[in-house]
Design brief:
The complex is a heterodimer of chains A (237) and B (401). Chain A is mainly beta. Helices cover 6% and strands 49% of the residues of chain A. Classes of the chains: A mainly beta (237), B mainly beta (401). The A-B interface holds A 32-33, 52-53, 71-74, 91-94, 110, 113-117, 119-120, 140-141, 163, 181-183, 202-205, 223-225 and B 22-23, 25-29, 31-32, 34, 36, 38, 84, 86, 88-89, 128, 181, 224-225, 234-239, 241, 329, 365-366, 368.
Chain lengths: 237, 401
Amino acid sequence: MKKTLLVLFVASFTFMEAQTLKPFKKFRTNVSEPSDIAYTPDFSGFYIVSDQGILYQTDTLGKITKTAPFTGVDFEGVYADDKNVYVSDERTRRVHVYTQSALEHTRQNEITYHGGMNEGYEGITFNQRKNCFVIVTEKNPIYFFELNSDLIKINETKLKIASDISAVYFYKDFMYALSDEDQTVFRLDPITYAVINKWKIPVTNPEGMAFDAQGNLVIVSDFEQTIFKFHLTENIK
Amino acid sequence: MTHVKRIFSIVAGISLFCSSTGFSQTTFTNGENVLELSGTIAAYYNWRFLDPNNPNNHVNNNISQPLDKKNNGFGLGTARLNLAGMYGSKYEYRLEFDMDALGTPASSSNPGNYSPLLNAYFVYKPVRGFSIKAGYAKLPYSANNMAYYPNQPYWSRAQIVSGDIFSRRDLGVTLQQSLLHEHIRIWAGIYTGMGEYSITNVTSGNYDANGKPEYAGRIDFSTNKYDFNSIYDTRNSQRPVISVGFNGRYTEKTQTITGLSDYDLKIISGKKTIIGMDAAIAYKGISAQFEIHQLIISPTNADTARLQGKNTTYFRAGGLFGQLNYYNRKLKSGVYVRYDNFIPNDLVKDNMEQTLSFGYNFFLKGFKSMLRTQYLYRLDKNNPNLLKVSDELRIGWQYMF
């Protein structure tokens, strides 16, 4: 009886454990302190933002091809649609909008948040299911703020899914969130943001996340200044 | 046993309180100016294990008197209020106080050798990778010295970096240059040389008569940009992170200040050179740090008595520490063991103090709400030449807001 209970106890932990992915490709970027990553609409390169408040355009190997002339303070999130590049500034609580071609700064808006200076907006994406932008605070607490097309806050959801969140990305009907401290990628329900699935990634200080044209998961590490690619295989859950 | 029960009751109480409250670290911004208000409160219960056979453990150092238990009780590790801000991306500033020091006001009989001010500086970053810091701040000497106290697992630092041997803060200017994406970092600075006394009425702004400053410099190399606060490998580094640093400082004074810190080594009449090196490694939750420092002092005036009448012009003091740590995120726990030693004067025989520290941390909410424990086991307790001979247990909680 005791043995059975012990086996069940160990097995329960085994099933709760998230699957650990292994990178099939990695390469260094010459962007210093990269904090988030997004593909250009035609997948011909990346947009990468840095802790120094700079938006870069790079080739597919992460080498800088263009630098936006307008700089902020601490850029931590980036998202690109067909027309614009949207960047979140963690410390000044702003979303900046740039043009795709010239990386020209066209507008900005403040989304007020009085949490810790270094615990502000870590990621930005567009939730196609709810037709709104989403920006996320890092921790203490984790908030998903929903913004309308004018970048004005229309809703907020407080989450307790991870120690922190360092990036968000909407891909194929699901919201994905990346936790730096937990080294984990979460698949979330796009409406409720409840966790549906999760994967461990063996990356130190993962700060940014995207998906390539083949559906591979792309992670950028600030600490290692490296871009990793993973096959996002489904696990048991 | 009663004490142990009391300690655990207090810790459990604080734990329950902290688990039900949020964190109110607050930031204000207008787009260019960003100002953050935060703070740290850490309180503990300290118990010294007093050996009744040691006269120094008795009142008036007299073995016929009762044991001196004045240090068995509650204490504040820190009570900080921190204002940190930035203007655009080129200017930063910081004003930090330890309110604990407000409880010991200065007077004519008490010269006020401790200031509540911990940091008061601004930083200018004219180009990427280069910065100029001016004001009252930590000197760029010793990796552990530059680590922020609330991010430490222990209540007290190793003796050699505790602030009793060399000053940890001073008024002055520091230049910093980072190279190769922060794999190499270089610091150089000039300071009053009066250390923490520079802003107290020990000096009242009147520094040493010879007017000579203190110079300090440091260079470190690391496989990834190294964070001094990474005592525990909370990042769970997936490949080894290694850092090595070398530092030095030099000053020449005609003044001596005694009776305000252990060993009276901080301000000495004469020439004082300090050299040190440190190394750190972290990999998958396991981390280790090592530091070694040596002071070479050529005393003048009354301080020549420290030469013990020997035929030499200088004496040496110094010490080291080595620490091994393990952090487990799932268990919200960390454990550490540290060995440190210190010799206040190499011309005196058998005066090496050695301490073995070990402890456990429970992280209710990371370092923001954390149980801190530290047991200090003194080696060579029966040596009459040593200043610190009692084992100590310190247990308490830290809360950051």
